[in-house]
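Appendix C reproduces, verbatim, an entry submitted by the partner laboratory led by Prof. M.T., so that reviewers can inspect both the input and the predicted structure.
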Amino acid sequence: MEPIHLARILALVNTALDGLVVGLGQRTYDLPGRGRRLAAQCGVAFAAGAVMAAADAVWDAATRDRTAPVDPDVIPAHESSLAIGHLVLSTACLPVWWFGRGLPERMRRGGNPRPNRTLALPLGLAYAAGAAPLWWAHARRRTDALTP
């Protein structure tokens, strides 16, 4: 498989995973008890981390012979740009959180017994839509960093 195709597949997996984590994280707010909610959110985060680590391992295994040796103390440019992009995306989500934090309570008063289940899908899809360009650009930069 060509590296660009593999990088794009991994970008799609990571985009879907981002949306899933946000959606499931929102859905856990309907769980009873703070301990259960925290345990569920941590479980989702750890599972997502494991899948992302596996995706990186697949990339490393598939491109081992094409990668140039790098200094372990230097962060590759495509990794730092991905981190900055996610920081910008998370910062852009803060106003949405700020203005929408009372929405579940208003929905509950309006007759919806589990408003966070209702909000989970649109929030997950919106975050995935925002993260997709970041992961797609990361895939392109990742393949550009390979030696010919």
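The longest helix spans residues 115-144. Additional entries are available on request from the coordinating office.
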